[in-house]
Design goal:
Length: 335
């Protein structure tokens, strides 16, 4: 996260100094063009991107070490850092933040300067935060290409328990069911299983800290899921209407999720890609030449078949047009 933000800021020619307890992380980030080793001189803004258990002490230390600097952090749990800062000097120069971006990978080699583009970025000022600190964090989000959303720290922690921490645990629980599965079962796995279990591959140590830091809101959400799960178990095989209601409630829930921040809803276009050199680059060239913006892209390889299935996410109103363009160019394509 830290290296990604540094790369995004360097796109605006902002001087970025990098510091880490592991010198090799700094060396790697510098080699990627994320900035230069530091600290050197007095920074105007200090961004703390450290594991959750070290956020509070690192923020307080930064406020003390740099008495003129604005300080923020990228932690996914905001209440505890806010409480720690409120009891320290320099609270007016701190405003918390949390970009809703990232993946199951970690470390500077997983960084991308485009990581935050189009993503929500929570800005969580405390009661002592000065307006200048809040404005600087809003500007930081803007420079990274994100959409800033200001909210109270406690409200933020409730929100991420629902939209981030609970989905992660549900992914973990689904993936854990695979351990005793016969290999023949797993050969039937398609993109649905991969979608559900992808984030379960995230760093265990990091997520232990995140969940410990936000335990009460996460526990409340898990209890709600437990209640719905118990009702569904009781209904299976005996109450089709109740099962249907559960499915309908879940389907309507997906419709409540906003599209890309500042953008439009997307639709998926699927393309068969022959497993030979140049096929994927040709597909991307054809998509680019169509003038239709591809918002996201992923590919799955067909089991025991020399093809891959590419999924291209495009603005919903342009999906049919992309299907027509690619079909006319000879691609096997469908929605």
């Amino acid at each position: 996260m830290g290296t990604s933000l540094a790369l995004a800021l360097r796109e605006h020619d902002i001087d970025v100094q990098l510091s880490d307890v592991r010198a090799e992380n700094v060396d790697t980030a510098v080699s990627l063009g994320a900035g230069r080793p530091g600290p050197e001189g007095a920074p105007g803004l200090v961004v703390v991107a450290v594991p959750p258990s070290a956020v509070s002490e690192t923020v307080v230390a930064a406020l003390r070490e740099w008495p003129e600097a604005i300080v923020t952090d990228l932690s996914s749990v905001k209440s505890e850092p806010g409480r720690a800062v409120a009891e320290s000097d320099g609270a007016a120069r701190y405003a918390g933040s949390h970009p809703m971006a990232g993946s199951e990978r970690s470390g500077p080699l997983a960084a991308s300067g485009q990581l935050f583009e189009g993503r929500a970025w929570a800005v969580t000022p405390g009661s002592s935060s000065g307006r200048r600190a809040v404005e600087v964090v809003h500007e930081l989000a803007r420079l990274a290409g994100a959409a800033a959303i200001e909210m109270d720290a406690a409200e933020h922690d409730q929100a991420v328990a629902l939209v981030s921490h609970l989905p992660h645990l549900l992914s973990v629980l689904a993936a854990s069911q695979l351990h005793d599965a016969p290999s023949a079962y797993l050969e039937l796995a398609g993109p649905g299983l991969r979608d559900v279990t992808r984030v379960a591959g995230s760093d265990t140590w990091l997520w232990q800290q995140i969940l410990s830091g936000n335990a009460e809101p996460v526990r409340s959400r898990l209890e709600s899921v437990r209640d719905e799960l118990d009702a569904l178990i009781a209904a299976l095989g005996s109450n089709p209407a109740a099962v249907g209601n559960a499915l309908t409630r879940g389907k309507s829930g997906t419709e409540l999720i906003p599209g890309k921040h500042g953008g439009t809803a997307t639709a998926s276009v699927f393309v068969q890609v022959p497993d030979r050199p140049g096929s994927l680059s040709t597909l991307m060239t054809h998509a680019k030449d169509s003038g239709i913006n591809v918002e996201d892209f992923r590919i799955e390889h067909g089991l025991d078949r020399p093809i891959g299935i590419a999924e291209m996410m495009v603005p919903e109103e342009r999906a049919d047009a992309l299907v027509d363009v690619l079909a006319n160019l000879g691609w096997s394509v469908y929605r």
